[in-house]
Amino acid sequence: MSHDCSSSLAELRSNMYYGSEVVNRVSFLREDDEFIAASAVHPSTRFVFFYRTNPLVIKNSANLLVVLSNGDNQLPPVTTSPDKNKVSSMDNYQTVRRGLNRHPQWNEAVQTWINDNREKSPAIRDKPKPGFLFMGLLDESVGLNLSSLKFEEDPENSTTDEKYLDYQGRYQGIPYYAVDMTNSPELSELVIDHVLTSLTTTNPTEEHEVFYTYSRRHFLSFPHYEAALYSHGRMFFDWLNKNKFCSGCGYKVIPVNAGGKLYCTNMEKIPGKDRFVCPLKSKNLSNLSFPRTDAVIITAITDTNRSKVLLSLGKRHAAVRMWTCTAGFMEPSETVEVATKREIWEETGVVCNDISIVMTQPWPFPGNLMIGCIATVQFNGKNEIIDLGHDGELAEARWFDVETLRKLMNNEDAGEEIMLPLPESIAFSLIKQCVAESEKNITKGGKL
Q1: Which domains, ranges and CATH numbers included, belong to the chain?
Q2: Which residues, other chains included, contact 360 with Cβ-Cβ below 8 Å and sequence gap of 6+?
Q3: Stated pTM of the model
């Protein structure tokens, strides 16, 4: 995401880091066992790999995130390094052209999972089985030109592989799966070795490393499409890995519907009644557990003409002097507007009733949805007064002139030795939007 202040609100929303629309999730097809079986083994199908929610990456490569296919020659050859800020770079480059279906061990693992998923087998999570999550289809709805793919001849064995899946003549595209290798160290080593031995590069002298990364330096340097795939897989696997037992009866729960839901394995029934012992399993609407996303409001606080923005210095970031927007978790039975108003007052003491929801961002640390707002404060000598004496979370809070923020965002000398949030964060985007609105207000010569 760019540091400059010229992006429009539409551009900020459509280009949100972690939140780009990369695949059509076709979530209803997760329950179609025939589709899942066909998609998991299709030559074009692509896989992203995780170990304890950490993604598999390639160091010193045109692409960072490891994305592999079942069949040979499904992935485009290396061209040039893409623009990390553009989702359209998704299919412009790759470095591994050989497919995983060369390996019997891989094919066996995929087929075993297909059977376990179809049968809702209680053993689906057992070691050494990998976990699979159907993420969606790369199709025309997200910009893939299917007519440009069709078929491609394999020069090694003179066979042709389908370049995309056509299911029932209605759903066409390239399936994407995330794979959790936490329980499968041997299969994980096979995948890593496959990457290293199959790697093609424009620079033969370049050395590569393939590893699961836990570094936010990598998480925040993916191209946008890789960031979205990483966020998608990580947030699901974090939820799946933290929920292994039923909250109603304590029995083991397993992933069903291609990893999209959790199912209680307790089949015991109440004697003499056609009802399960598990209180959740007996309820039609609650017999499956659904993925969890935690809602967090995050707010840029400004005045009516956008000349000032209130930023906070949290105690965690005091040492690095990183100032950011006010944020906090929503509580049950709160609207976004009420939660925003509450968090502003609890953290800064400022009173505000004018709340606008502006943009949102998935934040996979571990599973949040950041709901970005702009709060407009009516200055009257009371509302804007800062008071940090309520919940004590902040080290400081301060009203900044917009011109100072503009200079900081453009890497100009602002006379301040401080940091703003990373450009990939929604906090940066919200501040950026306030600066842009201030410039528009100056041009119009009046209030917004």
Answers
A1: 18-226 (no CATH), 243-292 (no CATH), 294-444 (3.90.79.10)
A2: 16, 19, 369, 370, 371, 372, 426
A3: 0.91
